[in-house]
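ugh ok fine here u go
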Amino acid sequence: MTDSLKLKRATYHLWTFTISKLISSFGAQVYAFAISFYILQLTGSATSFATNLICSILPRTLMAPFAGYVADRYSRKTIVIVAQIATTLAIGGLLTVSIMSGLSLIAIYTTTVILSITSTFSGVTFTSSITGLVDEARIQRAMSMNQMSISFAAIASPAIGGLLYGTVSMSVFLIMYMIASSIAIVLESTMNFTLFSKRKEVVEGEPKESMFQSMKAGLDYARLQSILMTIIWISLIINFLFGAFQVGYSFILIEKMKMDSTHFGLTEGALAVGMIIMSVYMSVRKEAKYPLRIAKWGIILMGIVMGGVAIPLLIKFSYNGMFAFYALLMFSFGILSILINTPMMVMMQKMIDDDYKGRVFSIMETMAMALMPLGMVLFGFLYDILEAQWILLASSGTLILVVLIMARPSVVRKAHPELGETEVVKVEAVQE
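structure:
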């Protein structure tokens, strides 16, 4: 295939990938919204609701390493399509049960587990396939458009789900999700996952690694990349410390500030708006030259925003002033999250060999998924016994300190050697 044809195909992938992600994310989030409401209306129990969340989180944590192994070992296109077909069949099964005997908690929990597993395999494989689908110059655009579609689905799905929930049956929600998933299958089947792939060919007669050996090889590969390990550790610490923000934000606004539910929803919407605006900007601007340096200062600013959530607990605001303050904070948070994530994901896509991408990304997902619930449980306990503002300020300070140490100038220069050369040129220019 000629270079011009490959670039045209890559452009097609760029849009197909984005539309596929938008449709499947939208369907999944409308379904999640409807099922959450249904469980609470059916049982009135927070425990039943939490059980469904566990059925979503736990399988992802357990299955991510296997998903990484499979993504690096087998055809990525086949994995993505099989995962999407399994999603469609699982929803079809739940629809059949609801029509024949009515929805039960066991049926919902079973479907949630299946959907969690399929989304893990699909998500890890898709992330590992970006460099095979699009040319290197447009990796940042692909990552930005992917995030844009997820953010748009996050804004639109609760609104549409809320409008539909009171007017249509649960069967209609399930049929909508099945249609969305089926469209995603059709789109994904037209994509060439090996267009720019640099994966090694399997040699006939070459001894095959066991699953355990393959997963260990992925871990060893990550360990040998010092910059990659720094990025992984920073991201894990962020995930853990953000438990303070995730728990504290809702607790402060609803419990301490007595904010109206509509206004609370609008502040959360500001987060998604910030993410979409920044995703659009990142999709059209040229690739970041020094992604680790950008991420470092972005995380420091994010730590300041996180600490800022505590300010209305220390300084008295009017109700409208408080609402505007939190909306601005969340909007800033959305912008910063994309400013940090997009350049870092582009850097990792280029840094990690195609043959190891699945395992490395799955290691990150497993550890992040394990730390997030741990952080939320720990900070949930702390908010019950300590003042909310001091927890947030301490977590914010710890986050900033960790990033300043782990992404110190010598580490940033190691990741971007050209930075040191630029500084030498500036010094010489001054001396002249």
